[in-house]
Amino acid sequence: IHALAGTDFLCGKALEMFIKIYAAEAGNKALTLVPGGGFYISGGIAPKILPAMLKDNLFMRNFLDKGRLSHVIANIPVHVVVHPELGLLGAKALAFRLLREMGQGPSVMSTFNSASDISGVPASPLHHSGSAGILAQG
Fold first, then answer.
1. pTM of the entire structure?
2. How far apart are the C-alpha atoms of 124 and 50, rounded to whole Å?
């Protein structure tokens, strides 16, 4: 809270260091997977610190800092999933799949709402334009 508000210098530096490490590790994973459809960051931390991630392109600069391999991930879109109940949506989708696999009929399925299509889960893009690494929240 103090880091985002700018009310404590040391908290701000700790958050900056965390984002640099977080971004470097995310970049390592992207370099390993090379996700052509985009790299999605989910969980509770990223949405809360998104303003700090976007400030001065801090996240993307460290995400893309892979030396001579930076070009491999330079055009991968990066997104932060901001849906507050993403874990519940995933659990619900898994439950429906397991019920179908168990051969449960419509009577059991009708006690639940239909499984949500999680492809519509909102995400905040951290776009970068080529090697420039320019971020924009959209």
1. 0.72
2. 9
